[in-house]
């Protein structure tokens, strides 16, 4: 008893295209041909296709199946590796679902980790300050980010902050120094200095390294704030 390609595909519950692809990638041996030139498949071909189909249904890639060879030995190591990968995927999906539940329940913004977003929800940050915080969330370690977000819970739109936000690029020397002095004396700045005595301590344990974090922070500051505001920030830390 011999089957054509279409009959083999039908028996295996797959498609002609899939059978041809198995041939192309070397997973399925070419059968003999009949006198009329048509392929003639036998039971070994059907068994092979069913095995490939079963392994792909379990999650193995065609490359992994090819590495197993043509035998029917139990693919213990391949299945063990697959199980490890699936466990990691399940853990990641469960973590995402937990975050989704928190975001949906609290209706916090989605550009920050939900716990951090919840902490700064009432901080009334300016668009620039909020953008800076979003970038920091990408740069800092989870522990440092949590400490930084905790300080923002006590942040408020102090008159000094309003003056800084409205500072024109051509602000004169006296105005810049006055804004810097006022911001330095804000209660929030005292809190920040208590948590991070050295400003560079923010990224001292950055996952991608101190230099990467420092360069990114500088680039972000230059893009978000005008020259007068940047000058004020420098004066504040002098």
UniProtKB/TrEMBL annotation:
Keywords of the record: Coiled coil, DNA-binding
Record CDD domains: HTH_MerR-like
Superkingdom classification of source: Bacteria
All residue ranges annotated as the HTH merR-type domain in the record: 2-71
Coiled coil: 79-106
Entry keyword Coiled coil: yes
Protein name, as recorded: MerR family transcriptional regulator
């Amino acid at each position: 008893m011999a089957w054509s390609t279409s009959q083999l595909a039908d028996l295996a519950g797959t498609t002609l295209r899939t059978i041809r692809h198995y041939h192309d990638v070397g997973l399925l041996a070419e059968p003999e041909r009949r006198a009329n030139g048509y392929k003639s498949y036998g039971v070994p071909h059907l068994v092979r296709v069913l095995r490939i189909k079963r392994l792909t249904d379990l999650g193995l890639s065609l490359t992994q199946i090819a590495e197993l060879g043509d035998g029917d030995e139990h693919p213990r190591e391949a299945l063990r590796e697959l199980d490890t990968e699936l466990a990691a995927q399940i853990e990641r999906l469960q973590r995402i679902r937990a975050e989704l539940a928190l975001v949906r329940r609290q209706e916090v913004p989605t550009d920050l980790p939900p716990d951090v977003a919840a902490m700064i929800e009432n901080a009334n940050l300016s668009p620039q300050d909020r953008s800076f915080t979003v970038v920091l969330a990408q740069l800092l370690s989870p522990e440092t980010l949590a400490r930084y977000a905790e300080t923002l819970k006590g942040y408020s739109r102090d008159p000094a902050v309003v003056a800084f936000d409205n500072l024109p690029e051509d602000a004169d020397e006296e105005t810049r120094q006055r804004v810097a002095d006022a911001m330095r004396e804000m209660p929030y700045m005292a809190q920040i200095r208590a948590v991070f005595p050295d400003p560079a301590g923010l990224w001292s344990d950055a996952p991608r390294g101190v230099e990467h974090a420092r360069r990114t922070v500088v680039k972000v500051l230059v893009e978000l704030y005008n020259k007068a505001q940047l000058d004020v920030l420098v004066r504040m830390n002098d």
